[in-house]
């Protein structure tokens, strides 16, 4: 039986409230359709040629916008596969051990066959107390979804969903098509907007729709272009909103770890930490390969909200192969395309035999974390040396 009580009622109310931004966008989109297609194109345009061209182009953009928005909202975020979950015996052992080196030893043993290269700021294995699993690289716990999300970018209130490995491409296309949609409306509505102010439009209700349509399209174009530009930069560098190497939170990026809603904790916004230290470009493979990580190898899918990202979301190629001899030169996901994020394949075996050595070598761990603490800027700040992984 489902638990009931003030806690669960509050949770259910919160879940309903989270849909308000999506309902707002949907209503706005519905009104923009009425204002543009009916009031501007059909009622106000006199030239048939202009009417037809505008209506065809508008419906094309409208369809792509709705399709990518829908896919961003309703694509379930992917969670770490069962290989990352601790066994019952390991969980029991973990509960018995006090926090510290013994605790880490249990996690190191559990992680010895897993393809993970990133660590906490102190060099420890990244572990989620809440989900009781070892976090794969680029995976973060979302406090809104209350789950660990693969390659989590941020929790977006405008789509009421976590943006991560399974839907990041859809989110980018949603930004791109919504920006094109707004720019197209603003550009084709401009001459009628000018006529409104020069009393060139007949005195009907259509003229007010035309005026508000231009204001809304211009306003959203400005905010969307900055957000889209920012995400293009992230993709070109193979970074994410959460791990972009800056401590400045961005509007709309919420939910990582225990950060309160709308207030991301600064630790969530740091560069990834590898065995050899922090590297803000650790996952960057060069512009072309970075783009292909998100959009895939098949060009025909690039502009469509169809899943084509490379990899399985659990392990990622890095540019540190030369610096870390333990890393495989062709990790899982570099050349493989997974068409369906629901049926993702995780390599059951370690990527390389030597990898288990990497994770079981406690001596090198201790040294690594000590050097890390000495070498890296910002490590002297105790707020940055502890990772709150739950
Ligand atoms: Zn978690
Ligand atoms: Zn989330």
TrEMBL record:
<feature type="domain" description="Palmitoyltransferase DHHC">
    <location>
        <begin position="125"/>
        <end position="241"/>
    </location>
</feature>
<dbReference type="GO" id="GO:0022407">
    <property type="term" value="P:regulation of cell-cell adhesion"/>
</dbReference>
<feature type="transmembrane region" description="Helical">
    <location>
        <begin position="208"/>
        <end position="230"/>
    </location>
</feature>
<dbReference type="InterPro" id="IPR039859">
    <property type="entry name" value="PFA4/ZDH16/20/ERF2-like"/>
</dbReference>
<keyword id="KW-0472">Membrane</keyword>
<protein>
    <recommendedName>
        <fullName>Palmitoyltransferase</fullName>
        <ecNumber>2.3.1.225</ecNumber>
    </recommendedName>
</protein>
<dbReference type="GO" id="GO:1903044">
    <property type="term" value="P:protein localization to membrane raft"/>
</dbReference>
<feature type="region of interest" description="Disordered">
    <location>
        <begin position="321"/>
        <end position="390"/>
    </location>
</feature>
<feature type="transmembrane region" description="Helical">
    <location>
        <begin position="170"/>
        <end position="188"/>
    </location>
</feature>
<feature type="transmembrane region" description="Helical">
    <location>
        <begin position="48"/>
        <end position="70"/>
    </location>
</feature>
<keyword id="KW-0812">Transmembrane</keyword>
<dbReference type="GO" id="GO:0005794">
    <property type="term" value="C:Golgi apparatus"/>
</dbReference>
<dbReference type="GO" id="GO:0098837">
    <property type="term" value="C:postsynaptic recycling endosome"/>
</dbReference>
<dbReference type="GO" id="GO:0019705">
    <property type="term" value="F:protein-cysteine S-myristoyltransferase activity"/>
</dbReference>
<dbReference type="InterPro" id="IPR001594">
    <property type="entry name" value="Palmitoyltrfase_DHHC"/>
</dbReference>
<dbReference type="GO" id="GO:0140439">
    <property type="term" value="F:protein-cysteine S-stearoyltransferase activity"/>
</dbReference>
<dbReference type="GO" id="GO:0005886">
    <property type="term" value="C:plasma membrane"/>
</dbReference>
<dbReference type="GO" id="GO:0055038">
    <property type="term" value="C:recycling endosome membrane"/>
</dbReference>
<dbReference type="GO" id="GO:0042176">
    <property type="term" value="P:regulation of protein catabolic process"/>
</dbReference>
<dbReference type="GO" id="GO:0019706">
    <property type="term" value="F:protein-cysteine S-palmitoyltransferase activity"/>
</dbReference>
<dbReference type="GO" id="GO:0005789">
    <property type="term" value="C:endoplasmic reticulum membrane"/>
</dbReference>
<keyword id="KW-0808">Transferase</keyword>
<feature type="compositionally biased region" description="Polar residues">
    <location>
        <begin position="321"/>
        <end position="340"/>
    </location>
</feature>
<keyword id="KW-1133">Transmembrane helix</keyword>
<dbReference type="Pfam" id="PF01529">
    <property type="entry name" value="DHHC"/>
</dbReference>
<feature type="transmembrane region" description="Helical">
    <location>
        <begin position="16"/>
        <end position="36"/>
    </location>
</feature>
<keyword id="KW-0012">Acyltransferase</keyword>
<dbReference type="GO" id="GO:0099630">
    <property type="term" value="P:postsynaptic neurotransmitter receptor cycle"/>
</dbReference>
<dbReference type="GO" id="GO:0007416">
    <property type="term" value="P:synapse assembly"/>
</dbReference>
<dbReference type="GO" id="GO:0042803">
    <property type="term" value="F:protein homodimerization activity"/>
</dbReference>
<dbReference type="GO" id="GO:0072659">
    <property type="term" value="P:protein localization to plasma membrane"/>
</dbReference>
<dbReference type="GO" id="GO:1903076">
    <property type="term" value="P:regulation of protein localization to plasma membrane"/>
</dbReference>
<feature type="compositionally biased region" description="Polar residues">
    <location>
        <begin position="356"/>
        <end position="372"/>
    </location>
</feature>
<comment type="similarity">
    <text>Belongs to the DHHC palmitoyltransferase family.</text>
</comment>
């Amino acid at each position: 039986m489902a638990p009931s009580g003030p806690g669960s009622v509050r949770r259910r109310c919160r879940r309903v409230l989270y849909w308000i931004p999506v309902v707002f966008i949907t209503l706005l989109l519905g009104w923009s359709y009425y204002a543009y297609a009916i009031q501007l194109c059909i009622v106000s345009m006199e030239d048939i040629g202009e009417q037809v061209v505008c209506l065809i182009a508008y419906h094309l953009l409208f369809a792509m916008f709705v399709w990518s928005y829908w896919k961003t909202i309703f694509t379930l975020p992917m969670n770490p596969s069962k290989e990352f979950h601790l066994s019952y015996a390991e969980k029991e052992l973990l509960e018995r051990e006090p926090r510290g080196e013994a605790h880490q030893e249990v996690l190191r043993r559990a992680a010895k066959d897993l393809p993970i290269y990133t660590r906490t700021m102190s060099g420890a294995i990244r572990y989620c107390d809440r989900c009781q699993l070892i976090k794969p690289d680029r995976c973060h716990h979302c406090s809104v979804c209350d789950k660990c999300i693969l390659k989590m970018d941020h929790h977006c209130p405008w789509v009421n969903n976590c943006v991560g490995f399974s839907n990041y491409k859809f989110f980018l296309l949603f930004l791109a098509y919504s920006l094109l949609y707004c720019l197209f409306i603003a550009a084709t509505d401009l001459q009628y907007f000018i006529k409104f102010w020069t009393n060139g439009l007949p005195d009907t209700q259509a003229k007010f729709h035309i005026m508000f349509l231009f204001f809304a399209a211009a306003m959203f174009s400005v905010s969307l272009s900055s957000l889209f530009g920012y995400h293009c930069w992230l993709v070109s560098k193979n970074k994410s909103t959460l791990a972009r190497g800056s401590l400045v939170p961005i509007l709309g990026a919420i939910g990582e770890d225990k950060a309160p809603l709308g207030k991301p904790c600064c630790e969530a916004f740091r560069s990834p930490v590898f065995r050899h230290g922090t590297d803000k470009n650790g996952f960057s493979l060069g512009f072309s390969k970075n783009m292909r990580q998100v959009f895939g190898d098949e060009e025909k899918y690039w502009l469509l909200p169809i899943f084509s990202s490379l990899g399985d979301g659990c392990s990622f190629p890095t540019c540190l192969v030369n610096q870390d001899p333990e890393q495989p030169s062709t990790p899982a996901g570099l050349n493989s395309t997974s068409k369906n994020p629901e049926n993702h394949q995780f390599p059951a075996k370690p990527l390389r035999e030597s990898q288990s050595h990497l994770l079981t070598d406690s001596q090198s761990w201790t040294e690594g974390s000590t050097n890390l603490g000495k070498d890296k800027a910002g490590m002297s700040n105790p707020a940055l040396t502890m990772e709150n992984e739950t």
